[in-house]
Give the backbone structure.
Amino acid sequence: MKVVAIANQKGGVGKTTTAVNLSAALAAQQTRVLLIDLDPQGNATSSFGLQGLEGQSLYGALLGDEPVTEKVLPTRLEHLFIIPADIDLAGAEIEIARMDDHLSRLAQALQPLRADQTFDYVLLDCPPSLGILMTNALAAADELLTPIQCEYFALEGLVKIVRLIEQIRASGANRELELGGILMTMFDGRTNLSAQVVADVRAHFGERVYETVIPRTVRLSEAPSFGKCILEYDAHGSGAKAYRALAAEFLQRHAGAVIPNKAEGSRGQT
């Protein structure tokens, strides 16, 4: 089982969109996926129409009061499961901060899942902040996948993320954490800026940048309001094609993965 944190300290970069739709696209390839919504706003949860559930978040497991296995819920998509978020997670930030092992609470909570290998991948949708929940996610993860919007300050944001990874390693909370991938989002092929940003990020970070880029499309923004992922809402649109391609590339990057021949999507040009 591999734990992947999907995180960026900046909001509005397609983080939750990526967590939801990558999870769905991986599950569509018969991969067993658990999506954990760590954001108290619960946007990933509502993307599957599961908002309003009480007592099902990771809150109790983070505090050591409940086993994580009791929090796992099925979604309507085969092979895809979720631990939803609720407002209690906001309180967990405060309570965990008082604990001596505050950086390792999530890693401890996930141990039963690592032990029984129920899932192939656990994806952590992190809040857009540098608080306790995000640092716990990085301390528990094998790698970080960070979505970056195709905008002028993309490289500046990436520098901050690299520093954060170094801090997590240096603290001893997770010496094995790696920057597993950088995903360029909200790509607009009509502008020179998007292409230039992608080229600049690839020049600095090389193979860590996914070849697949996620296009700017209204459909990706609309899907959550219907409680659906993009594969359900607009299965043949450019957003769905891009996330299928991302899932194929994600599997290719991880050992033993099989690449589906029918995968297609948007490819960035350098």
